[in-house]
Amino acid sequence: MFSGSHEITMDAKGRIAIPAKVREALLPAADDNLVVTASHIDRCLMFFPQDNWNETQTKIEALPSLNKHTRRLKRLMIGYATPMQADSNGRILLPPPLRTYAGLEKKLMLVGQLGYLELWNEDRWLQEAVSDFDADDGDLPDGMVDLF
């Protein structure tokens, strides 16, 4: 399970170094195999250990293709899904289409989301994921009101 947030940087070639603390949990869980894909909700990337991705992909494949929302989800998550392996220094080279989709630049945020990690452009993380939390987006989903 992944939690916490980490400020990281991307070099000019599009490589990121996974922080050692995250790498210790992520790579053994992934047997060194990761899948990186686009989020269907936010302009960020999602990092899955291979086993978690296999479960997620099975759920995605079961969704109805005639629904426009599930078609979009399939296009993004399956269409951008890229198998990867970290090098011996824990670095990953992000392909240009993924970097473009998420608007990734030098300063990034790697954020744990239990079964996967999200990778955000740092400015977008601060604007959309953090500061918009107080925005009125309607009623809270069932179960969230009584969460704490």
Helix-strand pattern: EEHEEHHEEHEEH
Structural class: alpha+beta
Model regions low in confidence, pLDDT < 50 over at least 5 residues:
none
Helix count equals 5
Shape: globular
Taking all Cα atoms into account, the compactness measure Rg is 16 Å
Beta-strand content bin: 15-25%
- The oligomeric status of these chains comes to single chain
Number of strands: 8
Query: What topology, given as strand order, has the largest sheet?
Result: 1-7-8-4-3-5
Average of pLDDT: 88
What proportion of the residues is helical, as a percent range? 25-40%
The end-to-end distance, rounded to whole angstroms, is 20 Å
Largest sheet: 6 strands, antiparallel
Layout: helices, strands, pairs:
Blueprint: E1 5-9, E2 15-17, H1 20-30, E3 34-38, E4 45-49, H2 50-61, H3 68-79, E5 82-84, E6 91-93, H4 96-102, E7 107-112, E8 117-121, H5 122-130
Antiparallel strand pairs: 1-7, 2-6, 3-4, 3-5, 4-8, 7-8
